[in-house]
Recover the amino acids of this structure.
């Protein structure tokens, strides 16, 4: 059951990322998923930060592909 839940969450996260990249606002996306206004922004920041840590690419290269790109901290 854990694998199915993880897969479902991964699919949701990718759908949120696609919507943000296509220009939907974070608050609109979050609302559509029944979450707080900052949910999608925080989720995408976590995905981006993991990509920076794990990709081996320069941070500037990784964040260039993310909507409203900026580094945290």
């Amino acid at each position: 059951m854990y694998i199915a839940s993880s897969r479902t969450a991964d699919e949701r996260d990718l759908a949120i990322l696609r919507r943000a990249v296509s220009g939907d606002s974070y608050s609109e996306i979050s609302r559509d998923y029944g979450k707080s206004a900052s949910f999608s922004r925080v989720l995408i920041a976590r995905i981006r930060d993991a990509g920076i840590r794990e990709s081996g690419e320069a941070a500037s290269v990784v964040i260039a592909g993310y909507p409203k790109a900026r580094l945290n901290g």
Observations:
- The radius of gyration is 13 Å.
- The chain has one domain: 11-63.
